[in-house]
Amino acid sequence: MKNLLKILVVLLFSSVCNAQQTDVSVLKYEELEKRIQEEKGKVLVVNFWATTCAPCVKELPHFMEINNKHKGNATFKMILVSLDRLVDKERVLKFIKNKDLTAEVVLLDDIKRMNTWIPRFEKEWDGNIPVTLFYKDGEKVYFNDGEMSKEDLEKTITENLQ
């Protein structure tokens, strides 16, 4: 009976730790910028992607592997910023479930002002995705334009966690 109880506790704990989002926060640029600034004392990985972007979908398993590796670290956080349209929110939720995305996913509903907010995130960003920005204590430390390998992702995170 004790072993059965231990197994149930472990299963419950693991399912809570790996719980997926049941909803997606919809943000404007200013709200996302504020969220980034609130993550002081952390290495923050912000990945811009879309469900219809093949390179984005291809790199997401690497991001999830690295996110799961570091999820117990209080000085690490990953946010996946979907650039899908607001009308496609249900598709994003299904995608989160089907692809087992464990990092926080937000939907940036600010496409009409993209020429304003893209250069505020990174002057060198031409608007293509995927794009990944790395912040440490709220300050941008690295910009990756395009698909990112698991090795480069891990290296950039490890360098900044030190």
UniProtKB/TrEMBL annotation:
SUPFAM superfamilies: Thioredoxin-like (SSF52833). Keywords: Redox-active center, Signal. Residues 1-162 form the Thioredoxin domain. CDD domains: TlpA_like_family. Residues 1-19 form the signal peptide. InterPro entries: AhpC/TSA, Thioredoxin-like_sf, Thioredoxin_CS, Thioredoxin_domain, Thioredoxin_ResA/DsbE_sf. It comes from the Bacteria. GO terms for molecular function: antioxidant activity; oxidoreductase activity. PANTHER family: THIOL:DISULFIDE INTERCHANGE PROTEIN DSBE (PTHR42852), THIOREDOXIN-LIKE PROTEIN HI_1115 (PTHR42852:SF17). This is AhpC/TSA family protein.
